[in-house]
Structures are given as structure tokens and as C-alpha cells.
Design brief:
The chain is α/β, with parallel strands linked by helices and 176 residues long. It folds into two domains: 1-33; 38-168, Double Stranded RNA Binding Domain (2-Layer Sandwich). The protein is built from five helices and five strands; from the N terminus they run αααβαββββα. A five-stranded mixed sheet has the order 2-1-3-4-5. α4 (66-78) packs across α5 (146-168).
Length: 176
């Protein structure tokens, strides 16, 4: 009896295999992906919030608002959003911070500077999505020289914006 059940199960799976690629082709992405909150895809007006963090002027050049200023300039030059002066005017809040996430390095946990970007609903302050980018995520990249740390900082801000662009480029797929 158990052999019959196994054969039927195998036939059932085999019969479904041709359907899975068709589901993927119809949606343009994995048919089993959960939809993004629609607000992320439809927002036109954003408020950029500086949640602060661990900016260290000994670590990188510039002043303590360098992360906010660079991120703000990158979002403005992208041109996708209208930047507004208060959360009440916004469809979405982009909240940037520079924090530290521990990572295993040999036998020790070492704090790694990390950019965090929260996408928040301005009405409820609920985080709809979050993106993290490590300041340095390349093996063998030397952080000894300040110019290298500055380069890593610039690259991390650019990657954060690129990750946001990739996220918001997803086609709207309303939940059914």
C-alpha cells in the first residue's frame, strides 16, 4: 500500500512541475513571494529622517550629518520622489541611521558600522521595510587609511540608494 501512495505522490508532483514556471512567467517574479506593502511602490512624496547613530569624525571625514546629507542628496538627484519638509506632508518616511551590527571575525564578535534605512508609514510610524548595508563588506578591503574609509562610506550610501531603487522598481502586484 505504501508503494502505491509514493507512486501517486510522485505522479502528483510531476504533474505540477510544468505549472510552476508558468506561474513565475505570469507574475514576473517568484509566484510564492509575498507582495510588498503597496505604499513602498506608490509613494511620491517622502520625508527623510535622520535617526542618528554612531558617526565618528575620527573614522571618516566630514561632519556628523554626513550620512544624512549624502543620502538626502542622492535621493534628490534620483528624482523619483518629491522631498517634503515634514512627515505630515509625506506618503513615506525614509529614516536613515548609522549603527553597529556585530559580526563574527575569527573567535570574536566585532562591531561593523552599518547603514540602516527604515521605510516608515508617516501616519502610524510602522516600519514597512528595512534595508541594511555594511560600511565594509568586501574581503581584503583595508580600512587603515582614512581615504579608504571615506570611499567605503560613499560606496555604502550609494549601495543603500541602489537597494532602495531595486526595491521600488518591483511591479505593483495588488494582493487578491
Amino acid at each position: 500500500m505504501s508503494k502505491v501512495v509514493l507512486v501517486l505522490a510522485a505522479l502528483g508532483i510531476a504533474a505540477m512541475l510544468p505549472v510552476v514556471p508558468n506561474l513565475h512567467a505570469q507574475s514576473g517574479k517568484n509566484a510564492f513571494d509575498a507582495p510588498l506593502p503597496s505604499q513602498i511602490l506608490t509613494s511620491k512624496r517622502v520625508f527623510i529622517s535622520n535617526a542618528g547613530g554612531i558617526f565618528d569624525t575620527n573614522m571618516v571625514s566630514g561632519e556628523p550629518r554626513r550620512d544624512y546629507n549624502q543620502f538626502y542628496a542622492a535621493i534628490k538627484s534620483w528624482g523619483r520622489y518629491e522631498l517634503v519638509g515634514s512627515p505630515a506632508e509625506a506618503d513615506l518616511i525614509l529614516q536613515i541611521s548609522l549603527t553597529s551590527i556585530p559580526r563574527q571575525m575569527g573567535s570574536e564578535m566585532v562591531p561593523f558600522p552599518t547603514f540602516k534605512l527604515g521605510l516608515l508609514d508617516p501616519k502610524t510610524n510602522v516600519t514597512l521595510w528595512a534595508l541594511d548595508v555594511f560600511l565594509v563588506d568586501r574581503p581584503g578591503f583595508s580600512m587603515i587609511l582614512k581615504k579608504n574609509r571615506d570611499k567605503a562610506f560613499d560606496e555604502a550610501v550609494a549601495k543603500l540608494v541602489d537597494d532602495l531603487k531595486a526595491l521600488t522598481a518591483e511591479p505593483a502586484n495588488p494582493a487578491k
